[in-house]
Design goal:
single chain, about 300 residues, alpha/beta, 8-stranded mixed beta sheet, 5-stranded mixed beta sheet, 9 helices, 13 strands, about 40% helix
Length: about 300
């Protein structure tokens, strides 16, 4: 290899190393300050509807967000998502819950216990998950719609930072590049692999495609449609979203086995407990309240 080629290779590797250091510093700073995260956007033009937004569109705090939750209304499952919503630091927000009619009163009591004035709606009999998402979105009012799954738990600034990314990027939607993957029954917590995590989506109301009438996988269809339409903003902030395995999720255990196999920074046992304690300072005490303590640790399956 000639000296010129060696110099060019060295320059590229140095620039790459500096970029990696900058990304790491941004993540550390964001975690410490609770402010902006590194923002990457997928290729594509800006969302066409962005030009029609009202004056002051760059101020994310001025936009209303509807969190739409489709739930079976199980008290031991839904509590973490309700507590997370109550703790959010984005003021202009509403929670719309679609739940089976027999559980409306129980969910209403749980929401009131968290001082949440949720819009709780009876789910139509026999509707698929995709149809129920459409049903909830149609009864929401926010300029931005955010999926709010009842299995999962969210950091206090999840809405504020996602809305900021959505506004600054001029894209149709914002998603997280990675999430925190938590399997409480196994006393295991990890960081997911990078991908478009459909369940983390926040999207301008004007850009929402109709969810297909599927029992599961409906959000993958919508995410791919948005990618083709106007692109998405990606945030690399896995601590904003705790993807929780409850044993009663839509997906089965082999699905979560595959996710765990691809994860990094897997912590079990006492290491899991320390990670939960640290993450609770960011998310809120309701995270630690749902963690097993001193439970035997199942082996991490390869």
């Amino acid at each position: 290899m000639s000296f010129r080629k060696q110099l060019k290779t060295l320059r590229k590797s140095t620039l790459r190393a500096l970029a990696d250091m900058r990304r790491a510093a941004l993540r550390r700073g964001a975690l410490a300050n609770g402010d902006a995260y590194e923002l990457a956007t997928d290729p594509g033009t800006a969302w066409p509807g962005y030009a029609a937004l009202p004056a002051g569109a760059d101020d994310a705090a001025g936009h209303s967000i509807s969190c739409v939750m489709v739930s079976r209304g199980l008290p031991d499952i839904i509590g973490g998502a309700l507590a997370s919503f109550a703790a959010q630091d984005h003021a202009r927000r509403e929670l719309v819950v679609v739940v089976p009619a027999p559980r409306i009163d129980a969910v209403r009591r749980l929401a009131a216990a968290h001082a949440i004035e949720a819009r709780i709606i009876a789910a139509p009999d026999g509707a698929t998950l995709g149809e129920l998402r459409n049903f909830g979105i149609a009864r929401s009012d926010g300029e931005i719609v955010c999926q709010w799954d009842d299995d999962d738990i969210y950091a206090r600034d999840r809405l504020r930072l996602t809305a900021s990314a959505l506004v600054r990027s001029h894209k149709a939607a914002a998603l997280l590049n990675r999430v925190t993957f938590w399997w409480p029954a196994r006393r295991t917590i990890a960081i997911s692999k990078p991908r478009h995590w459909e369940g983390t989506i926040a999207v301008w109301r004007k850009a929402i495609p109709i969810y297909p009438a599927l029992a599961r996988g409906e959000d993958t269809f919508v995410t791919h449609g948005i990618l083709r339409y106007g692109g998405v903003a990606m945030l690399d902030a896995p601590e904003l979203y705790v993807y929780r395995v409850t044993g009663r999720n839509t997906w089965d255990e082999p699905h979560f086995e595959r996710i765990l196999k691809a994860c990094s920074d897997i912590r079990t046992g006492a290491d899991h407990d320390r990670r939960i304690e640290a993450l609770s300072r960011r998310v809120g005490p309701h995270l630690a309240q749902r963690a097993p303590t001193g439970a035997p640790t199942d082996p991490v399956h390869p």
